[in-house]
């Protein structure tokens, strides 16, 4: 499957010197009104960019899509063959630097043609950020990073607690980026450096000084391909980022051990030891919060018992009420002593967090907690000290409020982190598909095996020879050099039937070798492997913010200041009401006075408000949704794609390979001139062998039957080969001009089509077959009928989509007769045939202009213009080529049913997001007034601060748990009983 896509040639070459008046896609905001455009006319500028990294038309289409989404872009054209992009834009609305950054955001390196700077200076790093609690925190970090010179783009995700930063290494360094994050009050740990770099952590024994460390570091830096080295002297750990195509971890170990003449011993850092890696940091954080909670509980339980329980037990009450100094009671003194370490030692993180947030002009959850607990604690201290200095004053303290608040909040954070850890389980499952060990073969000069060694699979390097035993997982992407077997590739393709493998075939790391021994040569290791690319795609998807999240980000800016203001107003209102006797004295509980009652209401308002729940509502659901999609073979490229997919009400299907099997077969041939059938097929196969079209492959495959060499035929040389997109091919074979294509091609070339051929074409079309005309030296020589049967599930899928209120349309470059027959068989009413790739895109735009939210389902290459134009592009049949930039969603299993699953999953995810927002907003809207005491006058009900704090902690946990329910997502029941070719799928 991968080979199919890697071998596809880029399509066509356009002249981009002039811009066509092609309108913008209706789904993409142009940013310029017609009136505004009149004013700006004549002020356009043209920028020419050099774009590195494009491999096919899908890449070019993805760049066009990204650039045209910017405001102020009049038009854009990308020339994939010359690696250039030309953009016509309004300088008053958008800057050329912004356009360049947008191209880079699409995954390519770009520079203005007049620039001298090397685009190699642009790098990407991922950073783990510890200590973020709400959207305000992530916004603060993001703003701090964006303010740094040299930062092109910074994304901070609250749910994953990570930042992805694209920066210019000539202007800013990683250390400066880490310092900027730490300056905002959070701990920053580098996770990875560069999207195309691998990273390995090595432990080195035998180092006893800084000199040893420097010697080893310099030795590693001398290796070609080593990009970055980070050292932790205490743990004796070297984290090396490197280019896997140039070097590898065994080279590092060899260099380290040879540097000290055997003095140093290097090996891969044990997983989970010393806090290395994201998972280890997460486990450490969970343990830390649990430990804090336990210690807090040890101090809080006696405080709670002495103030809430023991006061009703006569013997113990007498002891606690014993006076120590003046009116200071033993119970009050004990609660003060026990509450102090909870407030200042265990609760220290809230002080540091709020100080750092306020220092940068923002306010987060830590500010609310610190203010609430300080108000309760210091008021209690005041009461205790006043009782100690007065012979008459009886004190009532709130030490249980501050300590229980901190305990419940720590418990909530512990449960929240525990739950958040489960949202990224999908990535862990994907990474666990790779085997832990591999058998490395050492060959002699003649290619014979002279040694076998079992190594950690992370030590595999490019061009290593690996032995795969029956029943074992393939250790790396590679090519079979010896042996025959069948490999189960269902984890990538979804196809349960094992695929035969022999010499020269490609294998994918993580797939299972069913039978037979294979020797493979590793071709893609580390970050280059298919599995790593899938993991990276899922990680990027989870990092990207859905547009709906902007709502929470806007609220978070004003949430905490607003809550503090409400808290002060609540306290002041109740205090003044009590001062001027605006409510009966009987409302005040016997143990407190009006000031204390007002203070309790104020603290309750402050601690019940929860900005965390709002901040976690969207990212946790998107994380779980994209993770669930990945485990089901549906790669959703971020929150934008997920949000658009749930609105889809019209799907445009390509025919060949999407609705049909994609494996056409020649079913009939009619010769119109006197010649041998074998010679006829030899001539057209020689021309068609240069084409990648599925119909061309069918003809070549059929022609093998007439060739003596069978499976490995040698075809005559084809000169002046020309592929006419959407029509056919032309070539000179044995000095004869061969033209193979559809009816319109023959008419364009003025080739006469006899009635006999017309009749056969009509007959083929009536049987849902494609008729291919063959001309030799300008005269029609034969007609070839090719059948590409409809996928067994196609009709049922279209029926289910109708029940979901989604309209289905088929667009194909095939002839009208075949298109209508296939559409009728599939149950599709609207058909567009004989459509060139650019016309498919125009049809998508027409549907969008009619008010539809359109999804395009195609193969990701020939359909790339339509995939780009659609609101949601779905690439079907992608296999391991997960880098199809034109698609928003990649359906790896090549199953049509996954179109339904993708739409249904996005709808379920957004239902969950709405529920999260309803809960988070509803909780705050209802909770704050109740905490402020609106029910107290009529019912006498008031919410003690410690219960308000518990409710606040519970709200974040409930939002994360609500998102986690998506883990139990099941595809629609209709698909479970879908009959495919007489076989029921259960």
Automatic annotation (TrEMBL):
Q: Which SUPFAM superfamilies match?
A: Calcium ATPase, transduction domain A, Calcium ATPase, transmembrane domain M, HAD-like, HMA, heavy metal-associated domain
Which molecular-function annotations from GO does this UniProt entry contain? Answer: ATP binding; ATP hydrolysis activity; copper ion binding; P-type monovalent copper transporter activity
Which positions fall inside the HMA domain? Answer: 45-111, 123-189, 198-264
Q: Name one GO biological process term.
A: plant-type hypersensitive response
GO CC annotation, single:
membrane
Q: Which UniProt keywords apply?
A: ATP-binding, Copper, Copper transport, Ion transport, Membrane, Metal-binding, Nucleotide-binding, Repeat, Translocase, Transmembrane, Transmembrane helix, Transport
Question: What family classification does the UniProt entry report for this protein?
Answer: Belongs to the cation transport ATPase (P-type) (TC 3.A.3) family. Type IB subfamily.
Q: What catalytic activity does the UniProt entry give for this protein?
A: Cu(+)(in) + ATP + H2O = Cu(+)(out) + ADP + phosphate + H(+)
- What EC number(s) are associated with this protein in UniProt? 7.2.2.8
- Where does it mainly reside? membrane
Kindly give the CDD domains that the UniProt entry links to this protein. Answer: HMA, P-type_ATPase_Cu-like
Q: Where are the transmembrane segments?
A: 292-313, 333-351, 363-382, 402-419, 558-577, 597-617, 917-937, 943-966
InterPro entries (alphabetical):
ATPase_P-typ_cyto_dom_N, ATPase_P-typ_P_site, ATPase_P-typ_TM_dom_sf, ATPase_P-typ_transduc_dom_A_sf, ATPase_P-type_domA, HAD-like_sf, HAD_sf, Heavy-metal-associated_CS
Database matches in Gene3D superfamilies: 3.30.70.100, Calcium-transporting ATPase, cytoplasmic domain N (3.40.1110.10), Calcium-transporting ATPase, cytoplasmic transduction domain A (2.70.150.10), HAD superfamily/HAD-like (3.40.50.1000)
Per its UniProt entry, what is the enzyme's top EC class, as one word?
A: translocase
State its location(s): Membrane
UniProt topology in membrane: Multi-pass membrane protein; Peripheral membrane protein
Q: Can you say what this protein is called?
A: P-type Cu(+) transporter
Keyword Translocase on this protein? yes
């Amino acid at each position: 499957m991968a080979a199919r896509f890697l071998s596809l040639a880029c399509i066509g070459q356009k002249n981009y010197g002039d811009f066509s008046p092609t309108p913008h896609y209706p789904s993409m905001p142009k940013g310029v009104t017609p009136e505004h455009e009149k004013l700006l006319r004549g002020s356009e500028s043209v920028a020419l960019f050099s774009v590195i990294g494009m491999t096919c038309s899908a890449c070019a289409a993805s760049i066009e899509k990204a650039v045209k989404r910017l405001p102020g872009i009049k038009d854009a054209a990308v020339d994939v063959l010359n690696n250039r992009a030309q953009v016509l834009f309004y300088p008053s609305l958008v800057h050329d630097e912004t356009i360049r950054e947008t191209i880079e955001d699409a995954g390519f390196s770009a520079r203005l043609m007049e620039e001298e700077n090397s685009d190699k200076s642009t790098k990407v790093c991922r950073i783990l950020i510890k200590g973020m609690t709400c959207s305000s925190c992530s916004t603060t970090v993001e703003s701090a990073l964006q303010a740094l010179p040299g930062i092109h783009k910074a994304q901070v995700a609250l749910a994953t607690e990570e930042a992805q930063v694209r920066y210019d290494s000539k202007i800013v360094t990683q250390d400066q980026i880490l310092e900027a994050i730490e300056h905002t009050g959070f701990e920053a740990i580098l996770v990875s450096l560069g999207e195309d770099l691998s990273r390995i952590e090595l432990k080195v024994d035998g180092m006893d000084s800084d000199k040893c460390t420097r010697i080893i570091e310099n030795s590693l830096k001398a290796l070609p391909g080593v990009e970055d080295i980070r050292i932790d002297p205490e743990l004796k750990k070297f984290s090396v980022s490197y280019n896997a195509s140039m070097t590898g971890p065994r080279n590092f170990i060899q260099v380290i051990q040879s540097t000290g003449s055997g003095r140093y011993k290097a090996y891969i850092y044990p997983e989970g030891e010393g806090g290395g890696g994201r998972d280890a940091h997460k486990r450490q954080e969970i343990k830390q919060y649990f430990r804090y909670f336990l210690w807090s509980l040890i101090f809080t339980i006696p405080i709670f018992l002495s103030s809430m329980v023991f006061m009703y037990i006569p013997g113990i009450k007498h002891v606690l009420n014993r006076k120590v100094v003046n009116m200071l009671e033993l119970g009050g003194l004990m609660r003060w002593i026990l509450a102090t370490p909870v407030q200042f030692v265990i609760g220290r993180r809230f002080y540091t967090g709020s100080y750092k947030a306020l220092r940068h002009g923002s306010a987060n959850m830590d500010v609310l907690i610190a203010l609430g607990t300080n108000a309760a604690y210091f008021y209690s201290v005041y009461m205790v000290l006043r009782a100690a200095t007065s012979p008459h004053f009886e004190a009532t303290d709130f030490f249980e409020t501050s300590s229980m608040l901190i305990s419940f909040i720590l418990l909530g954070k512990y449960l929240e982190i525990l739950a958040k850890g489960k949202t990224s389980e999908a990535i862990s499952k994907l990474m666990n598909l790779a085997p832990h060990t591999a058998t490395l073969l050492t060959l002699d000069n003649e290619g014979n095996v002279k040694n076998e060694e079992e190594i950690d699979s992370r030590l595999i390097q490019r061009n290593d020879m690996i032995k795969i035993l029956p029943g074992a997982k393939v250790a790396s992407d590679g090519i079979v050099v010896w042996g025959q077997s069948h490999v189960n590739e269902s984890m990538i393709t979804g196809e349960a039937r094992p695929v035969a493998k022999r010499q020269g075939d490609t294998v994918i790391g993580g797939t299972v070798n069913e039978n037979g021994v294979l020797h493979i040569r590793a071709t893609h290791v580390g970050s280059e492997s298919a599995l790593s690319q899938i993991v990276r795609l899922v990680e990027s998807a989870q990092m990207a913010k859905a547009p709906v999240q902007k709502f929470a980000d806007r609220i978070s800016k004003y949430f905490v200041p607003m809550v503090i203001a409400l808290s002060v107003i609540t306290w002041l209102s109740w205090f003044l009401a009590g001062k001027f006797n605006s409510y009966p004295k009987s409302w005040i509980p016997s143990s407190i006075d009006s000031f204390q009652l007002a203070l309790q209401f104020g603290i309750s308002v402050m601690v019940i408000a929860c900005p965390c729940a709002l901040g976690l509502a969207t990212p946790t659901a998107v994380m779980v949704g994209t993770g669930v999609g990945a485990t089901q073979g549906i790669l959703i490229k971020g929150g934008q794609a997920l949000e658009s997919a749930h609105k889809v009400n019209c799907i445009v299907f390509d025919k060949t390979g999407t609705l049909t099997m994609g494996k056409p077969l020649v079913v009939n041939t009619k010769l119109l001139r006197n010649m041998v059938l074998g010679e006829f097929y030899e001539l057209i196969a020689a021309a068609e062998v240069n084409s990648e079209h599925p119909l061309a492959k069918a003809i070549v495959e059929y022609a093998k039957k007439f060739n003596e060499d069978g499976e490995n035929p040698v075809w005559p040389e084809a000169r002046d080969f020309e592929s006419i997109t959407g029509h056919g091919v032309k070539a000179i074979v044995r000095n004869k001009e061969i033209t193979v294509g559809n009816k319109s091609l023959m008419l364009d070339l003025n080739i006469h089509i006899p009635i006999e051929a017309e009749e056969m074409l009509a007959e083929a079309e009536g049987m849902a077959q494609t008729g291919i005309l063959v001309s030799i030296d300008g005269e029609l020589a034969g007609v070839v009928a090719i059948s590409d049967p409809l996928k067994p599930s196609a009709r049922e899928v279209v029926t289910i989509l109708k029940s979901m209120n989604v309209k289905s349309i088929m667009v194909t470059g095939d002839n009208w007769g075949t298109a209508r027959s296939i559409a009728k068989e599939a149950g599709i009413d609207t058909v567009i045939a004989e459509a060139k790739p650019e016309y498919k895109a125009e049809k998508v735009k027409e549907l969008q202009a009619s008010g539809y939210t359109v999804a395009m389902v195609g193969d990701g290459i020939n359909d790339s213009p339509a995939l780009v134009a659609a609101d949601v592009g779905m690439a079907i049949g992608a296999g391991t080529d997960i880098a199809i930039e034109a698609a928003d969603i990649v359906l790896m299993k090549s199953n049509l049913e996954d179109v339904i699953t993708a739409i249904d999953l996005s709808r379920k995810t957004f239902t969950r997001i709405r529920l999260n927002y309803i809960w988070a907003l509803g909780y705050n809207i209802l909770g704050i007034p109740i905490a402020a005491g609106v029910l107290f006058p009529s019912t006498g009900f008031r919410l003690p601060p410690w219960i308000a704090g518990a409710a606040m902690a519970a709200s974040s946990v409930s939002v994360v748990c609500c998102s986690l329910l998506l883990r139990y997502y099941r595809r629609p029941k209709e698909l479970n009983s879908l009959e495919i070719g007489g076989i029921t799928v259960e």
